[in-house]
Design brief:
The protein is of the alpha/beta class and 337 residues long. It has a domain of 225 residues: TIM Barrel, CATH 3.20.20. The chain is 51% helix and 12% strand. It contains 13 helices and ten strands. The chain has an eight-stranded parallel β-barrel with strand order 3-4-5-6-7-8-9-10, surrounded by six helices. A two-stranded antiparallel sheet has the order 1-2. Strand 9, helix 8 and strand 10 form a beta-alpha-beta unit. Helix 3 runs parallel beside helix 4, helix 4 runs parallel beside helix 5 and helix 10 runs antiparallel to helix 11. It is globular.
């Protein structure tokens, strides 16, 4: 057998075949793990709030308590450091502290998704690297929204974020930021290695289009992220949701609505959703920011001081009293025991 550089051609090709078999095996294992994670997320993922103490520091004990509350309430997954968790407002050290605490307290019982939204790829990759190091299962990111970017550039951004982080990525179509996911971009993302889904909080019509065009169980999921879309979303076939305020305050209620949908009890879904909307409308009317008023409600329940990270507003004494009165009107939705 002829030799090339001291090695036989047979060995050279034999090694190449072995490498390719290993690469295929690794790729298959990654896809199997991703499919398992996506299946486990069926149901309600709770976008956890970040309780703060009276000095504005992360309240570690109450964060752990909040994790346990959501687990008891039927959470299928956690989103740490989303908008409800104040990810855009927290310092990097606090982001790591929050994520480490949630991962540790969860202890593998359900998947943990880490929010890594940033305005540049290097910063997002740094957050993804941190998330991977502390044990998060998946990452979630909005598009960078400081500059207008077309579908091709955004698709490249997300492909690099998923590929270079080596973590499954859920893209967040957040209606509160200035750059959104349209159907052209969604079609690109659904074919991008490492991108495993889209979380949508835009409109019911967009949610339906994303669901019908791109949702593929075990490969690419569409998550409904708006509490006002919970009942209607389940009716049109949504199987994965993320819940911020209600997920923290009333996980049992939201889980029961999911259960009713799985059991085809659509009258119960409708009744549960209507009651949830009544509660959310009444609560969010009590302050200028739904995120901040959820923190006040959590403080009434014994989780944190009610403070949010500035510029979100600090609670007033009148707001605290109004929220406490409101919670007493909804004991079925928000148990206070």
């Amino acid at each position: 057998m002829k030799s090339l550089g001291g090695k036989s051609v047979f060995c050279r090709f034999g090694n190449l075949k072995t490498i390719r078999r290993l690469e295929k095996s690794v790729s298959k294992a990654k896809k199997t793990r991703a499919a398992n994670l996506l299946d486990r997320l069926t149901g309600m993922t709770v976008a956890l709030a970040t309780p703060l103490d009276e000095r504005g520091r992360v309240h570690m004990k109450d964060l752990r308590k909040l994790v346990d509350r959501a687990l008891a309430g039927g959470a299928a997954g956690f989103l740490a450091l989303g908008w409800c968790g104040e990810q855009p407002l927290l310092m990097d050290a606090d982001r790591r502290l929050v994520l480490e605490t949630i991962v540790e307290e969860t202890n593998g019982r359900i998947p943990v998704i880490a929010g890594v939204s940033e305005q540049s790829l290097p910063r997002a990759l740094a957050q993804a690297k941190m998330a991977r190091a502390v044990g998060a299962d998946l990452i979630l990111s909005t598009p960078p929204y400081s500059y207008p970017l077309g579908a091709a550039l955004l698709a490249e951004y997300f492909a690099r974020l998923a590929g270079e982080s080596r973590m499954g990525l859920i893209v967040y179509n957040n209606h509160e930021v200035g750059v959104h996911v349209d159907l052209e971009l969604a079609a690109r993302l659904a074919k991008t290695d490492g991108v495993v889904g889209i979380k949508d909080t835009s409109t019911m019509s967009m949610l339906q289009r994303l669901l019908s065009l791109f949702h593929r169980p075990g490969r690419f999921i569409i998550l409904s992220g708006d509490e006002y879309h919970l009942g209607p979303g389940l009716l049109v076939g949504v199987t994965h949701t993320t819940m911020g305020g209600p997920g923290n305050l009333c996980p049992w209620w939201c889980s029961d609505i999911h259960l009713a949908a799985r059991q085809n009890r659509w009258a119960d879904v409708a009744a549960g959703h209507r009651r949830l909307v009544q509660f959310c409308d009444a609560l969010y009317a009590l302050g200028p920011s739904p995120y901040a008023i959820v923190k006040v409600a959590l403080s009434v329940l014994g989780y944190g001081s009610g403070l949010s990270t500035p510029p979100l507003p600090a609670p007033t004494a009148a707001q605290r009293k109004a929220v406490a009165r409101l919670l007493k009107k909804f004991p079925d939705v928000v148990p206070q025991a």
